[in-house]
Each structure stands twice: as structure tokens, then as C-alpha cells.
Amino acid sequence: MKPILAIVTEAIRRDIHYPLKYFTHFRVVHFYNRIPYGDMTPDDFKSSVQAVQFDTPAKLNDLLKKLMPNIIQGAEPYASRKALRYSLAAQKAARRVGAKFVFPMLENRPPQERFGRPVAYIMKKILRRYATKSDLIFTLNDGARKNLLDIGVTDEKIMPFFWGLWGVDAELFTPEENGKEPDWQLPTALFIGRLVPEKGIRDILQAFAILTNVTPAQLVFVGCGPMQNEIDGYTNSGDERSQITRYDVMAQDKLPPLMRASALVIYPSVTTPKWEEQVGTVNLQAMSCGVPVVSTLSGAIPEYVPEGKAGLLVPENNPQELARAMLTIIQDKELRRRMGEYGRRYILENFDIKDNIAKGEEMLLELLQ
């Protein structure tokens, strides 16, 4: 019989749950508390991967003890208060059933800046205890690793590896067209994500105004958030040289055609005292589609985007440099081709979801041995 891996998350969403079908060496059971994103269909819940909802930490503890898994994967305690409570309950269950305990760590802001010094002192103590009682910790960026080392976690327990987000579905996010690509008449810069200030939305709008003083172009936003009304105010200007369009959040399978129809994907995240980009998954998906990215030297983005090879990275809060990078890619078709081909190879070699999960499973099997 296959060993059992129980994965505990506060919320369930399709891009986290659906890839679990690629596990081959473990029977996976996904425990979750909330369904906040609206992207899970009844068919998703009928997949081969069991999804079990719980309402309280005590109920989660009971469910895990009944399942008797071999490995329990919790969330990182810095994610939210609820995630902390559920993760502590999961770790308690692991001790009771004799299971190994692992978790992924993404938080790369220093705790004293994320939480403030008094709260950071408490959170660091909690993380130290939580990490000490864990068997393996996957870190998805260098800042997360530094946060663990800062509280005394040993290097032997830390594994830098893209885990918990699983990777990029290179069969979905592919350069191969499927006939659903929009026929945009202007070179297009595409943004996909939350419409919030820390995603650099105002920098995009200012850079686009600079860009279209030089060349006609289109800007497309896909997403929702508090800044959507501000964006919508730009969408009906009537300027044939400068078109701005916004779509609401789309299912993942609708995104690759939009990417393939674009000259570039733009993702200029901005660091704030409480947040910095932990991965930038949209950049990886764009590269997998063979599309260059224009992003910023923000958070972990430089760890994931090969600058100058698969895209261009510019300083944060710099619309002028952002516009210059966009113009460079739009005006150079050969550069777009080279960056697109390099980005696709880079994803296949480093972040293909099936290969990534297979490597992670080997690590977990080794942990059991």
C-alpha cells in the first residue's frame, strides 16, 4: 500500500489542489477549512485526490488521528492566525500518530517589519518551536531561509525547493496555440493578478502613458481588487494609440491564450513594510508560454526570472524604466523570440509540475526511510 500524505491548508483553490493528482508514490488527502476563491468546481472535488473540509483545529486533529497518515504537511505559521492554529493542531496530530511533519515556508519579510517588534518576538518564538518539531522545511525563496536561520533552525532541516505551489503545468501553459488566442491589433502588455498597490498597478499605468507617447500599444488587466475602479476609468479613453482593457478573474485554462497573444507579461511588484513578492507565479507561467516578462527587482522575483534572458527586471517604483523595458521588447521581434524560447526551456528544466512533484516525492520517501 502507498504511504499516506495529509496536506493541511487554510483555504483550498484549484491551482493548489488540482496538481495533487500528479502524486504517484503517495496517497494524498487534502484537508482544508475554507473555499474563498470560487475556482473549485464539483468535478474538481470528484478527482482522484480526496478533499476533506474541517471547521475547527480540534476537528482537524481528530480527522488526522483517524486517517493515520505517514506524513503530515502543515502550513507556515506566518501565513495567518488561522493557518497558525491549524498548523499547530496538525503538528500535534503528527506526534500522536507517529507521522513525519513537514511544511513549506514562503514568508520572506523580516518578522519585525511584517508584524512589528512586540508581535515579532512572539511569532519568532512560535516559529522556532514549530520548526524545531518539524522534520523537514521546504523554503521557496532566500528570505524564507534567512528567517529560519535567524531563529536557529539548522541547515540540515531546510530544503530549498519549489514545494507547496508544486510548479508550472507546462502542458497547459505552452507556446502551442489552440485557436483561442484573441486577435489583438496592437502590441499588448498583459497583467494578471490582484489589483492592489503592491502589484505596481499605478507604475503600470504611468509607464503605459510614457510608452504610448512613443508607439501604439494595448494594456490588458486580468484581475479584481480595490484598484479596479481606477483602472476602469482609463478603459474608454477612445485613443486609438492607447487602449486599456480589464477582465475579471479568469480560470487558469483561459490564461495561456491571452499570454500567447501578448508581446509581454508585465508584473512590477513593489515591496511594502509588511509584504514582498514571494515567488511571482505569473512570471513563471508566462515564461512557460514562451512570452517575455517585464518585472521588478522585488522580493524573490530575481531568484525566479533569468534577467536579460527570459525577460527584463527594473527597479521598483520606476515607471520610466518600466516603459523603457516594455518598449525594448515590443520593438524587437527577434529579442521576443529569443527570450520566449529561453523562458520555455528554463521552465521545463526547473519548474515542470510533474518533474517537480516526482522530485519532492523522492525527498518525502527518503524522509520516511
What does this structure look like?
With about 375 residues, the chain is an alpha/beta fold. The protein folds into 2 domains: about 180 residues, Glycogen Phosphorylase B (Rossmann fold, 3-Layer(aba) Sandwich), CATH 3.40.50; about 160 residues, Glycogen Phosphorylase B (Rossmann fold, 3-Layer(aba) Sandwich). α3 packs parallel to α4 and α11 crosses α14. It has 15 helices and 13 strands. The strands form 2 sheets. The chain has a 7-stranded parallel beta sheet with strand order 3-2-1-4-5-6-7, sandwiched between helices. The protein has a 6-stranded parallel beta sheet with strand order 10-9-8-11-12-13, with helices on both faces.
Note the topology.
Elements: E1 4-11, H1 14-17, E2 27-34, H2 42-45, E3 50-53, H3 57-67, E4 71-73, H4 81-97, E5 100-105, H5 111-114, H6 117-132, E6 136-139, H7 142-150, E7 158-160, E8 188-192, H8 201-211, E9 217-222, H9 228-232, E10 242-247, H10 255-260, E11 264-267, H11 281-288, E12 293-296, H12 301-304, E13 311-314, H13 319-331, H14 333-350, H15 353-368
Parallel strand pairs: 1-2, 1-4, 2-3, 4-5, 5-6, 6-7, 8-9, 8-11, 9-10, 11-12, 12-13
List keywords for this structure.
369 residues, alpha/beta, Rossmann fold, 2 domains, 13 strands
What is the strand content? Answer: 15-25%
Total DSSP helices: 15
Characterize the overall form. Answer: globular
The H-level CATH homologous superfamily of the largest domain, spelled out, is Glycogen Phosphorylase B
Q: Give Rg in angstroms.
A: 21 Å
- Computed structural class: alpha/beta
N-to-C order of helices and strands: EHEHEHEHEHHEHEEHEHEHEHEHEHHH
How many beta-strand elements? 13
**Biggest sheet descriptor:** 7 strands, parallel
Q: If strands are numbered along the chain, what order do they take across the biggest sheet?
A: 3-2-1-4-5-6-7
CATH class division of the largest domain: Alpha Beta
Helical content band: 25-40%
CATH architecture of the largest domain: 3-Layer(aba) Sandwich
